[in-house]
Design goal:
8 helices; 287 residues; alpha/beta
């Protein structure tokens, strides 16, 4: 089994529809990257348009990419990715709610922006707000992607508000965590969400306010029993600094996040679960 560490790398406090596009949280990523390198973890940074467009953050990420210490993938936030219409930034539309024309335009612009800034086109992807659909799968193949991790098994986003006149997000309640090909080229490796622990509760391989070391052990253990070829860990870049997300409001909360991260990385090292980037895993899967 392999460990795929993913970071949704985006502007500060994007849960707040009134938030601007400051990317100060990304400047704190060297601490996280150093922890990853300590444990031979090679993260995949799914970056939004505004992160790619910021020269300081792009320089950080490109350095890690170029030395093989991380991968830069794409993360589509419709409300920050051109072409933008007046007022579009005032909602948090799921990519799956976009028209065919808008979806194609935004995903193409994001892909080309990342390619021009980082010197290589992205080949891994995650839809913003998990808003994935079959149209994106087809576009990813067309644009040269090989990896997606947008599906959240057993979770529905139908009741979550997206576009102002939209109908909410996708329903993944019938999906499972097993990697599978979408269209002969793009490998879907769903977010690791499994029934784990004594009460068989549905748990994400994420760090929430009440997540314990035992929770992480239970999810990894459940994945091992299922013989999954990989587990996907996810965190927002804004959760790696205090005060930039609703999940990590202060330094005490940040210390807890880093404690759990170190426990997870140490656990995987102890179990011999090696870390790979998203695209590297896709290539291994095909081999």
């Amino acid at each position: 089994m392999k460990l795929i560490v993913t970071v949704d790398t985006e502007a500060d406090d994007q849960w707040n529809e009134q938030a601007g596009l400051s990317v100060e949280n990304v400047y704190a990523l060297p601490r996280f990257q150093a922890l990853c390198e300590k444990y031979a973890v090679v993260p995949t940074y799914f970056v939004t348009y505004e992160v790619a467009a910021d020269l300081q953050t792009a320089a950080l990420l490109r350095e890690w990419q170029d030395k093989g210490a991380g991968e830069v993938g794409a993360h589509l936030h419709p409300w920050t990715t051109p072409p933008l219409e007046a007022g579009e930034g005032n909602s948090r539309a799921f990519p799956s709610e976009l028209s065919d024309e808008k979806l194609r335009a935004k995903l193409t612009v994001l892909t080309e922006k990342i390619g021009s800034i980082f010197g290589r086109r992205p080949t891994s992807y995650r839809a913003g707000r998990w808003g994935f659909d079959a149209r994106q799968a087809a576009l990813l193949k067309e644009l040269g992607y090989v990896f997606d991790s947008s599906i959240t098994p057993r979770v529905s986003w139908k009741k979550s508000r997206g576009a102002l006149q939209g109908h909410g997000g996708p329903d993944f309640t019938k999906e499972n965590a097993i990697p599978h090909m979408l269209n002969g080229q793009v490998l879907e490796v769903p977010m690791t969400i499994l029934r784990a622990g004594f009460f068989r509760r549905l748990r994400w391989l994420r760090i929430f306010e009440n997540t314990t070391k035992r929770d992480l052990e239970n999810v990894i253990g459940a994945a091992e029993r299922m013989r999954l070829p990989a587990v996907v860990f996810m965190i927002h870049s804004s959760e790696l600094v205090a005060g930039k997300s609703p999940y990590v409001k202060d330094e005490r909360a940040l210390a807890r996040v880093y404690a759990r991260l170190e426990e997870l990385f140490a656990l995987c090292k102890e179990k011999g679960i090696a870390s790979v980037t998203a695209s590297a895993f896709a290539q291994e899967f095909h081999a």
